[in-house]
Write a structure and sequence with these properties.
Largest sheet: 2 strands, antiparallel
Helix content: 55-70%
Strand content: 5-15%
Number of helices: 6
Radius of gyration: 18 Å
Strand order of the largest sheet: 1-2
């Protein structure tokens, strides 16, 4: 299976990768951008992530309304990943019940959701280091993650 095309405009990447990204941006320039208003069914962390991430993705120019379901799945799986992690923090990865030890089912949920976030993030052109920073900084109580922060994390490609 061939390697996925890299979406980038960074001067540190290869010229053909930057040219391909610019061609994609030009082809997408007449397509509708993603709605910056989160879908009504997204709640909590997923809703916050959409509201913060989509304006920045729109600025980059290679994401369009046709990518709606991919961005939605990214936000949902990120939320699921956070919920599973919160359960593990509260209960632990292994817990004891009536003298027997059990693996917290949230560990499997966390593993699955993390893989999906990584895969979907790659489809959206987010780098691994950007995802790690986003995961570390975005949470329910953290209103410090702004559009400017995302530009710094994902790079100002304009």
């Amino acid at each position: 299976m061939p390697r996925k095309a890299k979406i980038t405009t960074s001067d540190s990447d290869r010229a053909y990768q930057r040219q391909r990204t610019e061609a994609l941006k030009e082809a997408n320039s007449e397509m509708a951008k993603l709605s910056e208003k989160p879908p009504i069914h997204l709640k909590g962390v997923a809703n916050q992530l959409w509201a913060t991430l989509v304006p920045e993705l729109n600025k980059l120019g290679y994401i369009t309304s046709s990518d709606n379901s991919t961005v939605e799945a990214f936000c949902i799986n990120y939320s699921v990943m956070r919920e599973a992690y919160d359960s593990i923090k509260e209960v632990g990865a292994i817990y004891e019940n009536q003298g027997r030890y059990y693996k917290n089912p949230a560990t499997a949920v966390l593993n699955d959701a993390t893989g999906k976030v990584k895969s979907l993030g790659g489809e959206l052109g987010l780098s691994p280091s950007s995802r790690a920073t986003l995961i570390e900084r975005a949470n329910d109580n953290d209103s410090s993650l702004t559009g400017d922060d995302l530009v710094k994390m994902f790079g100002d490609n304009q």
